[in-house]
Automatic annotation (TrEMBL), chains A, B, C:
This is Glycine transporter domain-containing protein. Residues 9-83, 95-166 form the Glycine transporter domain. The lineage of its organism: Bacteria, Pseudomonadati, Pseudomonadota, Gammaproteobacteria, Lysobacterales. It comes from Rhodanobacter fulvus Jip2. One of its GO terms (cellular component) is plasma membrane. It holds the Pfam family Gly_transporter.
Length: 208, 208, 208
């Protein structure tokens, strides 16, 4: 499979997955039609736009490439139309979100390397690509981001981005360097969600 | 009228209008003098700064051109001095806000085209110029942005920005391509406010 | 002392100070380990990253230079390990925060001038470097930023940044142009905290 095409597919699939998760959250907060479309688009493209601004990819692809906007709008309208069904089935929504996480972390790290930045920038911005949109969604809906609170979410994105950088540096074949980190990030997120793996917290120390 | 001068006037008038709306909201939240000045400035210039960062206009005009800061500070001090009067008269505040919306949507779209970006970037960033400052204001005052919830606000900005792009692409005379979209956006916003036109919401479906 | 080295030390000391203040706030909000590390890093580097994006320093040093991330992580882990002690002693936390404020305001203004921007950009972005991370921290923890509400905080940063620009323009020796504004900003912040100096507020007018 052509490498460029591979990354385009990965990127649009992630956009669709994240837009559904954004639209679901926005609808639950009683936003109007525009609000749902906007939150879906920001959840899907916010992380990528932040990444592009920070790597100097001007204008950000999330703004200039109509396929992202179209994908987010279709995903939002689909969520609205199929809502009672989406609502009852929290499973596929979480599945989509975990897929989006892996897809975006890998694509974000890949794009940062492509623009000539170092490994640290690629790993951090891979993670930003994956969690930035969700954090923007939560800030706009005025809640402390779940990203910062529960289960292994950002850490899975960080692991996926790091594995991408390692793979590209070690010269793995593109298909492996792409899908292996995606699968790893997705699995880590999905397992942590189902087994309630959480990172340690430190509140209410008995000794405090 | 000179085209550049026309856009400068449009831009500063929008700055003044938005700074008043920001200062009013900040004062209502009991912020101190600096907080009121900061929120007024961010409401007025935040959208434009975000646009400039995304089109590669470095440094953003909202930071480098002292006229924006001065305009925002004057508007904020005016709001503080005339507050009892501003508070009682919600009408002119809404009027100013609707004017700022039209002025900024058109100026933002115009500047994005000027920097050589495509129609989608111009339309989206015209809208960001118009609603970005207000969204930043609401995020900083920790409330879900009214932009996403009620009446036709962002949609009016989107329509104004889209009309600007169409006008400039079709070669309308600058005065028409400027004032017609401003008037259209302003009217749409103002009518929707007075007639309580809202976009559909989807909460609490009876069938859910 | 070498000028470049001087600014590097100033910058990393500010990073450490702010990361502690971020980690303390995040821990109090019951965030998990990743959340604490992320908020510490964002509090420490968020203002500088915003500055770098707006002056065209791509990629932002906060992302590309591993020393910032490492400093923030060490400060966060130290805060977690020594928490009962940090919690009881609010004094050193405030001291660190006031130091970070001065250090960052001065370094931010200096870097903006170094990139060839004008005095207004340098003063505003010096302040953004100093208060931007704290504002991002408060937005992510969904509270109205203390920056906008109490005591002289942002104003002290503004004064420090302005004094840096004046000093560099008047050709003061680097050591003076660096440490004098830092000391001034720190003293202003620290005195206002201890003497409860507040800027005027305008709520609940008796005449309204």
């Amino acid at each position: 499979m052509n490498e460029q095409l591979l990354f385009n597919v990965v990127d649009l699939a992630g956009t669709f997955a994240f837009a559904i998760s954004g639209a679901t959250a926005a609808r639950r907060c009683q936003l109007d039609l525009f609000g749902i479309l906007a939150i879906a688009y920001i959840t899907a493209c916010g992380g990528g736009i932040a990444r592009d601004v920070m790597i100097g990819a001007i204008p950000p692809a999330g703004l200039s490439d109509w396929r992202y906007l179209l994908t987010a709008v279709i995903a939002a309208l689909f969520t609205i139309a199929a809502y009672p069904w989406v609502e009852r089935l929290t499973y596929p929504v979480r599945l989509f979100d975990a897929m989006g996480l892996g897809l975006f972390a890998v694509y974000g790290a890949h794009k940062a390397l492509l623009f000539g930045h170092n490994a640290e920038v690629a790993v951090l911005l891979g993670m930003v690509t994956a969690i930035g949109g969700g954090m923007a969604r939560d800030v706009l809906l005025t809640r402390v981001s779940i990203v910062l609170q529960k289960e292994i979410y950002a850490l899975a994105a960080l692991a996926g981005a790091a594995m991408t950088v390692i793979g590209e540096r070690l010269g793995w074949p593109p298909v492996w360097a792409t899908w292996l980190p995606i699968l790893f990030c997705f699995s880590l997120r999905f397992l942590s969600l189902h087994r309630h793996w959480n990172l340690p917290r430190f509140g209410r120390d008995p000794d405090a």
